[in-house]
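Can't paste images in this forum, so I'm doing it all in text. The chain is below; anyone willing to post the predicted structure tokens underneath?
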Amino acid sequence: MTAYQKNSNLGFKAIDFFCGGGGMTCGLRQAGIDVIAGVDFDKNAKETYEFNNPGSVFVHKDVKKLRSNYFEKNLEVQKDDDHLIMVGCSPCQYYSIINTDHSKAELSKDLLMNFARFIEYYNPGYVLVENVPGIETNKETILPKFLKKLENLGYTYIKDVVDMSQYGIPQSRKRFSLIATRLDGVKLRFPEKTITPKTVADVLGEKNGFPKISAGHKDTTDFQHTTAGLNEKSLKRMALTPHNGGSRLSWANQLELQLDCYIGKDDIFKDNYGRMWWDRPAPTITTKFFNISNGRFAHPDEDRAISIREGATLQTFPKEYVFKTNSIAGAARIIGNAVPCKYAKQLGQLIQSL
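Text version of the structure:
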């Protein structure tokens, strides 16, 4: 039986709200938890979720409109189950420091309270929340209201902004993380931190099964070592960017290559067009990691952005995980929005050990 096959005899079970393509679901299943269902309004994530997590039902619903008793009626989920985990990793664009359309993102800023409605109805033993650090610091955050709701329902919790690189994820990714329980006598804690962070060299490169490729390479296999193309000018920029951590400053004085938006502004968006370092964790993998203009997403040595599979690996998806999309951008969106599977696995293992 593989890590992705359902095992109905397992004690712990979970419902993964805002599941996307299944990063959290994948990790919890790897930990031996039966993920009953994932809920998401993004129909483009459905095929990826179901293909890689057989036995976990993808519920294509808007949480705001989903009836509280849906899981009770359709999936026989019981109330007051001490072994039920409810996960709420709601869309985080509104609280992100990355420039975004806040008028659009505002539609999702209160989703945590919609998630709380299901916590109140089912009274699960455990609750997990993962989000951007801004959910704590944004002056308009819904988090205090959500925490007060948890307290009123009888839950205790721990919360912190964690750096995923301290949990074996080869990526500097700071995230808000919360673990809550209503069970008496349970001493909550976070997973143990690793002593030595994993680096890009630990997981990428030829020795780790990633053959050298050029910009625009299309991998038609399920390995999906596919990378975006670059125009002639961007290829020249890459050729002049030093390997292993080089930046756009190496060609900033060449009028042919310098971008108008950066003229005289070498101190802004310093990572854009930069290369990753072999001997450091990768930067945060965003939904735009396939584009060298959106961050330090260029390969340490090769003149290209990292591939879909490389981005997924930095997010600790298994190499067998297939992203069922029709575009690089679609796959990158699923990957960048995901909870790193390895962190999710550690959370699942932790809850079972409490």
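The domain at 13-194+340-353 is CATH 3.40.50.150 (Rossmann fold). Residues 142 and 264 are 39 Å apart (CA to CA).
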